[in-house]
Amino acid sequence: MEQHKQMNRVLEKNERDNMKSFTQLKDVKTLLVEDDAMIRNALSMLFKNKDCCLRVCKNAEQGLQALKEERFDIIICAFRLSDMNGLEFFKLVGNRPANILKILISTYGDRELSSELSRVGVHAFIPKPFSVKQLIHILVQLVEVNQKNQRICVQADSLAEQKY
Question: Is the pTM of this model over 0.70?
Fold first, then answer.
């Protein structure tokens, strides 16, 4: 009986933590470029159930079109896509818009890939398979760091404008 109560407390804490994490992602617009329909559908349902904004695209061409139509805070892109790989996609995206967070997901990962990630401005690599908890944890961490960096830049800009 005591074990059951402990398990319930752990589950309740995990649910509170998950809700807190999703709360931090409510105002964040995320683009998912993934050719695996199962991953697209699972993340779509999850984000929708948590009232978070996620637009899904099944290939790079659709992803690039989505970027022309909307501004996103985060791009999550699979390495293997039907029309190009994720690194090529991120090269085409470049640094526009500024402060966009780039995440590559893949079952493939080696030294050559990791050196290329930083060269194209990828902020995080998530190996497949991944859990929703891992993904959300990484998203929240990146968003928090990005927000702090933006605040620091804004403060530095406003200090530079002041005359002494």
Answer: yes
